[in-house]
Amino acid sequence: MTHVTEDDLDDLEFDTLRTGDHISAARRLAELAETVSSGVSRANVLLRAGEQWQHAGDHGRAAEFYRRALDDGGETYGDPRAYLADALFELGEAGEARKLLDQIREDAPRDPEVYRAVAEVLYAHEDPVGAHDWATAGADVVLTLRDQAVGTGLGGAPGENDAPESLTPGPDDVALAEDSLEALLRLRYRARLDLGRPEDDYDALLDDLLKNA
After folding, report:
1. Which of 20, 43, 53, 116 is the most exposed place for a label (fewest CB within 10 A)?
2. Beta-carbon count within 10 A of 155 CB
3. Coil, helix or strand for 11?
């Protein structure tokens, strides 16, 4: 059995960025998934293996590993269903992909990175309306966390999607969420440009973030 840390996985992926050999990285991660005993979850390693297969252009193998990560049920970063949906779109299985995204929506995740991942998938697959809606919902999650944490009244900005209620954020939740806000608003703005929509309060918020960066 093998002890594997997040740093080990990050180092492997960094080396892969240098070499471009995603297939070897995917195979190595698949091997690690069979032997990992501590440090990171097996599901996390399977998810990373799926990402490497997808980078290599083998969307079928990527989908296989994303499904294995889901079936494993262990802790992962983000939501494996978003990654699986991306692979399914690539495979021409849009119906199944959208069912997965509907499931995520019904779960009302509190992690804004999940919304960002889904928005990016939809934007990449030429659905600016869907990308816009998911990015808006993700921004609302951040604003709600900020509002409930500090009571400034900044949450609940007008939009087409309501943020999940009854969140009980801690300082770490808010800090991580704030890191996602600019990316969500940038993606939302790109979708609005594609849709020919005028600037709104969220776009003004993005302007403020960029000015204060």
Report:
1. 20
2. 19
3. helix
Task: Determine the pLDDT at residue 153.
Answer: 40
Ranges of H-type helices in 108-127: 112-124
pLDDT, mean of residues 159-183: 61
Task: Give me the sign of the Cα torsion angle 9, 169, 85, 121.
Answer: negative
Which residue is it, tokens 């790109």?
A: 190
Name the token pair of 166: 């009854």
Q: From the CB of residue 213, how many other CB atoms can be counted at a distance below 10 Å?
A: 6
pTM as predicted: 0.84
Q: Indicate the length of the chain as a whole number.
A: 213
CB 13 within 8 A of CB 25: yes
Beta pairing partners, 2: 36
Q: Which residues of 14-35 are buried (b: 16+ CB within 10 A; e: fewer)?
A: eebeeeeebbebbebbbebbee
Note the helical H segments in the chain. 6-19, 22-35, 42-55, 59-72, 80-90, 94-107, 112-124, 128-150, 171-195, 201-211
- C-alpha 213/C-alpha 207 separation (Å) is 10
Check residue 166 and give its pLDDT: 44
Q: Which two tokens stand for residue 195?
A: 């849709």
Distance CA 49, CA 65 (A): 7
